[in-house]
Structure formats: structure tokens, C-alpha cells
Amino acid sequence: MHKINLNKFQVATNETVRDINSRIMLNLVRRHQPVSRADLMRYSGLQRSTVSVIAGRLIADRWLKEGAVGNLPRGRRPTFLHLNPDRCGVIGVDVQAARTTLAVSNMDSQFSALETIPTAKDPSEFIARLSHRITDLIRAHPKKSYEGVGISLPGRIEVGSERLIFAPTLGWNELDLKTPIERDTGLPVKLENAANACALAELWSGQHMDAVNNLVAVAISDDISVGMVLNGQLVRGSTGVAGEFGHVSQMPDGPKCRCGNSGCWEMLASNAAAVRYYAESALVPKGAIGSKSDMATVPFGDILRLVEQGDSRACKALNQMAHHLGAGIAMLVTGLAPDVLMVVGEVTRVWDKVGPIVAQAVRQHSFTHAATRIVPAGSEVQSRLRGTVALVLQKHFNAPSIA
User: Fold this and answer.
1) Domains of the chain: residue spans and CATH
2) What integer is the mean pLDDT of 357-381?
3) Between vectors from CA 60 to CA 59 and to CA 63, what angle results, nearest 5°?
4) Would you say residue 57 has pLDDT above 90?
5) SS3 sequence, 135-159?
6) Which residues lie across from 156 on neighbouring strands?
7) Of these four, 197, 218, 290, 292, which has the most CB atoms within 10 Å of its CB?
8) What is the mean pLDDT of residues 326-331?
9) Which of 127, 108, 115, 106 is nearest to 170 (CA)?
10) Given a cut of 70, is residue 206 above it in pLDDT?
11) What span, in angstroms and rounded, lies between the C-alpha atoms of 403 and 397?
């Protein structure tokens, strides 16, 4: 049951019905394009006259375009409809600790431009540089009508105000990115946590978008964040911090986490954890023998390359990370029972080695009958960018809220 909030609701009107039908039509065209009006009538169950009126309105508003004319043995030849690629451009931004990726996208998450800039440590400097690059991208691609800017961040966003609450890997807290970027670019800005963006991406354009209503995305970098889509709805919680499973303690006597707890999941199963495991396994520490405080660190990407080369130390570090990753995923499978759990991150490069260890840990620690499929995602940057596109466009394609 979806409970009606009697303190905050909107009654349905004739306009609400038209809005819902228009969004249904947009989604049907997006899924089946190119598609005729007759096919839309069959898919939707609406009358021919209603479909014609809605299609005409969407064409007038430039959401749809008419394309090729079909061939039939007799009767009126159908004109096929498809989304207008120039109607709605989106600037997608994926912010990470070292670099930020920007993209120009259409409604189908097809990127016509992609570039990266360093992520400045100072947030004011970062906002100014990002706004400048967004403006340059818009000028370089002037044919599109831009709908907005979607930004994915490795932190949590407050519901309502869309202020960044905290982003430990960036070192930013209580920051308003939305207002200055909107002022500088003249476009509306939507912000979302990186894991939530990955979950949205899968609903918007992933291989599970038509078949899955319960999906969990686990985004792994130097931290771990979780995005949850349950019963077809993105779960943010009342303040926007839902999904911080990375800071659930799994080993009370484990390493100290920056959140103040000890043995948090991200301290045991993140990229940074694998880097630490590899350094701790060194036979000869850097500096004084016996002192592990001055040990040389190897970037996580280099550890993965060593794993692919069969290096035993790197393999041991990765296996340790994978075991803890599986134990945490077992917690999610037991507690949420999603249809699909999607792992996003650089670690998926060696999923042939990590996946079996994760699966074994889940079997060991989860005793429910949940038939969750655990799958690696493709490019993490592409996934987050597709999520930012969905973030901006969902107001036109999602069911309107009336309760």
C-alpha cells in the first residue's frame, strides 16, 4: 500500500489525467521508437483520438518528431514517431575526489561530448571552474535546448534544499553547490549521491529497467555508498542520508573510521582497504625495518594490474577485500531482498576473481531465500553520468505525485 499523506497532498484534476497520459506516451515512445500512433494505441489502451491529441501536443512541444512513413498492403500508411534528440539536452557532471567528468547528453543518454577537469580541493574554486566549463559546453553545442544540469557527488544530499550534507572523500561539508551553479549557468541544477545516481541510471536506461522494481547499487571507491530502489521508488530517507551502509560497523575492534566508529564496512571492503591490505603485507616496509607507519602505498588501479599479472600479494589483498565486500552485501541481501544488486566501481575489472568470493560470502552469511542476482556494472563514470541525465529528466517521465 502506498499511503496517502493527508498533511501534504494534491487532488487529481483533468490536467493531472492529461499529464499522466502524456508521460505514459513519452515512455512508450522512448521504449519502442520508432513507433506508429496505431501501435501506441495498442500499447496504451487509449482511444485513437486520445492518442492523436496527445501525440500532436507532444510534437508541438518538440518532445516528439515524426519520421519515416511505413508500408502497409492497404489502408493509411503510418508515420512513425520518435523522441526529438534536439528537444532536451542535459549537462551531466560526475564529481570524484581527483577528477570531475562533464558530458552533454540527449534524452537517451547518448553523449555528444565528454571531458574531464581536476577536482579543486577548495569548493569555491571548484564551483567557479565547473560553472565556467558548463557554460563553455553549452556554447560549443548550441543546437540543443538544455533542460538542466545533473550532478553526481560522493556524498549525501539533503532532501528539499539539495545542499551537500557531507562528502568525506572530498573534504566538503554543509555546502550549497546548487545556488551558485544555477546563477552562473542559468540552468536548473539537480544533485544526487553517486550510488543513487547509479541506481537511477539502471532504471532509466539499464538492462534491468523494464523487469526490476527492487534494485540496490553498491558504489565502491575509497568509500562505499549504497543506492536503493525499492518498489520502483528511489529511497532517500526523510533527510537524504538513507543508504550509508558503508558506516555500519562489521568489526568493532577493526581499523578506526573517519566517521568515529571502528571496523566500518568501507574500512574493510573499499579500494582504500585493499590498498591498506597490500601495504600491510609488505615484507620490507619503507623506512625503518619493522615500522609499518611509513610503508609505501600502491594505487588501487596498480593493485588490479598486479592481480591480472598473478602477483600473490596483490591477489591476497584483493581476496581479503572481496571477502569483506561479500559479508556486507549479505547484509543488504538479508535486509532488503532486492531482485538485483549491482556493484559499481573499478573492482569490477577483475570480477571473475572477486565475484565467486563475494557469492561464497553471501551464501555463508545470508540465510534468507532471497533470489538476488549480484552483477557487476559497466563503466562507473558512464553509470553515474546516465544517472544524472535521469535525475534531470525524471520530472517529465515519472508518474506525477498527487499524494
Assistant:
1) 14-83 (1.10.10.10), 89-202+383-397 (3.30.420.40), 210-377 (3.30.420.40)
2) 87
3) 45
4) yes
5) HHHHHHCCCCCEEEEEEEECCEECC
6) 166
7) 197
8) 96
9) 127
10) no
11) 17
